[in-house]
Amino acid sequence: MRSLQTATLLASTLGAALMAGLFCAFAYAVMPGLARTDDRAFVRSMQHINRSIVNGWFLTPFLLPLPLLVLATVLAAKGHSPGALPWIIAALALYAAAFLVTGARNVPLNDALDAVPQDAAPDRLTEARAAFESDWVTWNTVRAVLHTASLGALLWAVHLHGTGVGELSP
After folding, report:
1. Which burial class, exposed, middle or buried, applies to 26 when counting CB atoms under 10 A from its CB (0-12, 13-18, 19+)?
2. Which range marks the domain in which residue 112 is found?
């Protein structure tokens, strides 16, 4: 069971790292770059990004950590790395919060922007951008921070697991 716990922690850590990196890159590079574009370029670019990102390369590291963290929590509670248990629970809560932010805030904004026709009038593009950009950037920053905090908790859990802190002697 120790090797299963190791695998769940490492895979969850990798997923959290990939998501933290992705959403942080949007926060410090992609969105500031798009902020310098005109409305049509902004709307079209975000539409293309949002359509392109829904693929296995994104969905696997985005979705997989949740069930793996639940499994890691159960294993830790049953005595496999009990010293890491609070950190695994923290990582799960933070990751779940980021997941919920994505589903409740960013995805609906993406969907609304996706409904804007490519040939929309300039005033419609301005309205769509205004309804999207500030809120999306804010919630993206929230999920970037949550994923990064989840990653930090997971890194400490992996350390505690690796050192055997809190494990019972045979």
Report:
1. buried
2. 2-163
- Cα 162 to Cα 6: distance, rounded to the nearest angstrom: 8
Closest to 98 measured CA to CA, from 109, 110, 107, 87: 107
Who contacts 136 (Cβ-Cβ below 8 Å, separation ≥6)? 31, 105, 106, 109, 110
Task: Determine how many CB atoms are found less than 10 A away from the CB of residue 144.
Answer: 22
- The rounded distance, in Å, linking the Cα atoms of 25 and 50 is 15
pLDDT mean by block of 10 residues, the chain; 170 residues: 94 98 99 99 98 97 98 93 96 99 99 97 99 99 99 98 75
Residue 127 is assigned to a structural domain of this protein: yes
- The alpha helices in 78-121, defined as continuous H runs, are 85-101, 107-114
Q: In this structure, what token pair is assigned to residue 84? A: 């890491």
Please give the single-letter amino acid code of residue 152: G
**How many domains, the chain?**
1
Which long-range contacts (C-beta less than 8 Å, at least 24 apart) are formed by 41-50?
42/125, 42/129, 42/133, 43/113, 43/116, 43/120, 43/125, 43/128, 43/129, 43/132, 44/118, 46/110, 46/113, 46/132, 47/113, 47/114, 47/116, 47/118, 50/110, 50/113, 50/114
